[in-house]
């Protein structure tokens, strides 16, 4: 029986993951800012599911939650860094505090949780870390540059971890969902305090996102099942893409980068010292 530690378990992917994990007979630590929000999950299997209070921007809360999980279940086998939120703002509109909150939650929090569970995984030579990213991690989208940057940073860290820990029996995976019917464009979304009229196109896009909330094609229950199936499968990939819209979006982003890089193919060597110098 494996023990999963899932952050952001009160809604969206986190809740769907916790329910799916419990249904398969594994143990789950459902981490949420308000433990009462996951009381119904605990009630599904009180012997295998526990709630912990967690604010991912608090080092003390992370240490306490991880310690409580280990005290109850002995070890954390799989960490799912799911907690995070979107921030739809142009680069200019955002204030410093909003940018710091975005990176504290989407990057520094997951990094701290990884550091908290890795010693135990390394000692057992076994473990799995899943970091939930987004299609936005593949490129900087207009109107969500800070969110895109936070997810790109999370992806880079996961790539590094996968290489560092592979020989220690620890695996890592990035999950890249497209639009899913979660709270992402609802109560979880952050907006800039000031809107600048010159970014009219971005403002219109922002309002369209909000208006479309609840109609996204992605089903978090199906997505959660695929995540768990993949983690428990024979050869999980470094990147798992979820949603019909997500795959072509990410592929197109990488193809655009390749085209752009070709411009520098003959220029790049000119920056080196001449041969023999």
CATH top level is Alpha Beta
Name the CATH homologous superfamily.
NAD(P)-binding Rossmann-like Domain
As for the number of domains, it is 1
Q: What is the spatial order of strands in the main beta sheet?
A: 3-2-1-4-5-6-7
Question: What oligomeric state is this?
Answer: single chain
Structural class category? alpha/beta
Per DSSP E runs of 2 or more residues, the count of β-strands stands at 7
| SSE string | EHEHEHEHEHEHHEH
Helix percent band: 40-55%
Report on this structure.
This protein is α/β, with parallel strands linked by helices. The chain has a single domain, classed as Rossmann fold (3-Layer(aba) Sandwich), CATH 3.40.50.720. 45% of the residues lie in helices and 13% in strands. The protein has helices at 12-23, 39-44, 59-73, 96-124, 145-165, 200-211, 220-232, 246-262, and strands at residues 3-6, 27-32, 49-53, 78-81, 127-132, 170-177, 239-242. Strands 3-2-1-4-5-6-7 form a 7-stranded parallel β-sheet, sandwiched between helices.
